């Protein structure tokens, strides 16, 4: 497989699964407007583009900025997966309506989680009398994305190797006197230098009491001797997201911080050991949470144990406490019911983070995060770096 190029056979398989769901729902087509889903089905990575997926076709709609890219994808994939290209001439909305009117389709799904009500109502009004009915759907493409194919896993493995290298390099270069913001800027440069498309999210560098804030934003505070320093960052490698967290101590670590770190490391190990095919994600969360509760730190664990990774940095599955299917989170429409993707049993090929943490306001915090893939017998770590507290 060529790096950065998804083989047509894998695209064809993804399209086949999506078309199967169209048939289950009695739909003739699906208007795909969520950019990660467009990328997943076509390998198109522009900032604007829409796909019309039908029972036997695939049409990419984008504007002149991406015409050359779109034509290249048609040349590569068109004969194998039926990809065609329509260039936007006026507005996206008018072009979409023109394509739908000419399609002969009767029932076309729209991605309700990714389309505003105003956009939906505009399209519905514009298509009145055309014979096209827009039908609300949720998660038809996302459900396929939950389990990664061999191409995706190869990409994520390489990305995991590279982000582990960036973390090791960053930890070795930490020192006092620099601001959190300066260290974060260095991390972002290192991520790009390691061959990533860019950061997967705003890099987190938190020193001293700021480590008690799970998503502290790097600011002007200078790192000081005796600080705990939390580094949480990720990169996008060939369209796929990696995410990793480690903690260092600038000088001899405070005994309390050592205790927190030991507890979080034990919780991390317990969560990884609980990963097995068929296990509900909540079991993995409970394994980590039980350790921290036993160590008297349960109230400091304020988030879930992990989240899915793929073309988005937060996707299914969700590893947290079990919840009722209320339509929030990562829903997938199944008939008249709503199934929460994050709570379905684990399957080989699912990729997610394991990131237990403890946060004590005014004192500090620790989080340890790795990325892993579910295997037939347990899990495989995609990121690889010692979980020891790094003392600098």
Describe what you observe in this structure:
It is elongated and about 70 Å long. The chain has helices at about 10-25, 35-40, 65-80, 90-105, 115-125, 140-145, 150-170, 180-195, 255-275, 280-295; strands at about 30, 50-55, 60, 85, 105-110, 135, 200, 205, 230-235, 235, 240, 245-250, 305-310, 315-320, 330-335, 335-340, 350-355, 355-360, 365, 370-375, 380, 390. It starts with 7 loop residues before the first helix and ends with a strand. The protein is α+β, with helices and mostly antiparallel strands. The model is unreliable at about 325-340 (pLDDT under 50). The strands form seven sheets. It has a six-stranded mixed sheet, with helices on both faces. The chain has a four-stranded mixed sheet with strand order 8-9-12-22, with helices on one face. It has a three-stranded antiparallel sheet with strand order 7-10-11. The chain has ten helices and 22 strands. The protein has two domains: about 10-145, Creatine Amidinohydrolase, Chain A, domain 1; about 150-390, Creatinase/methionine aminopeptidase superfamily (Creatine Amidinohydrolase), CATH 3.90.230.
């Amino acid at each position: 497989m060529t790096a950065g190029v998804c083989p047509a056979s894998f695209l064809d398989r993804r399209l086949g699964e999506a078309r199967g769901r169209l048939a289950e729902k009695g739909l003739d087509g699906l208007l795909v407007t969520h950019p990660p889903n467009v990328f997943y089905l076509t390998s198109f990575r522009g900032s604007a583009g829409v796909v019309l997926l039908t029972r036997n076709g695939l049409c990419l709609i984008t504007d002149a900025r991406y015409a050359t890219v779109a034509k290249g994808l048609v040349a590569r994939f068109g004969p194998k997966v039926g990809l065609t290209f329509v260039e936007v001439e006026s507005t996206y909305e008018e072009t979409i309506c023109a394509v739908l009117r000419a399609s002969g389709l009767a029932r076309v799904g729209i991605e309700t989680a990714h389309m505003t009500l105003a956009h939906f109502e505009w399209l519905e009004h514009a298509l009145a009398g055309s014979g096209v009915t827009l039908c609300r759907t949720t998660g038809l493409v996302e459900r396929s994305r939950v389990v990664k194919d061999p191409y995706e896993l190869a990409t994520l493995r390489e990305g995991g190797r590279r982000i582990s290298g960036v973390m090791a390099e960053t930890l070795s270069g930490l020192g006092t006197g620099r601001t959190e913001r300066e260290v974060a800027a260095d991390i972002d440069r290192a991520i790009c230098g390691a061959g990533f498309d860019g950061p997967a999210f705003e890099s987190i560098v938190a020193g001293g009491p700021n480590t008690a804030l799970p998503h502290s934003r790097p600011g002007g505070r200078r790192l000081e001797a005796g600080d705990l320093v939390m580094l949480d960052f990720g990169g996008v490698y060939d369209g796929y997201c990696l995410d990793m967290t480690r903690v260092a101590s600038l000088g001899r670590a405070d005994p309390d911080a050592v205790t927190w770190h030991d507890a979080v490391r034990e919780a991390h190990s317990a969560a990884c050991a609980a990963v097995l095919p068929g296990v509900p994600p909540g079991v993995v969360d409970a394994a980590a949470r039980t350790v921290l509760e036993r160590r008297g730190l349960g109230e400091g664990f304020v988030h879930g144990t992990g989240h899915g990774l793929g073309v988005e940095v937060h996707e299914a599955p969700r590893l947290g406490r079990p919840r009722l299917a209320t339509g929030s989170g990562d829903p997938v429409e199944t008939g008249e019911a709503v199934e929460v993707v994050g709570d379905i049993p684990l399957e080989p090929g699912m990729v997610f983070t394991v990131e237990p943490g403890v946060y004590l306001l005014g004192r500090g915090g620790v989080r340890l995060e790795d990325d892993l893939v579910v295997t037939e017998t347990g899990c495989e770590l995609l990121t690889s770096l010692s979980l020891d507290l790094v003392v600098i």
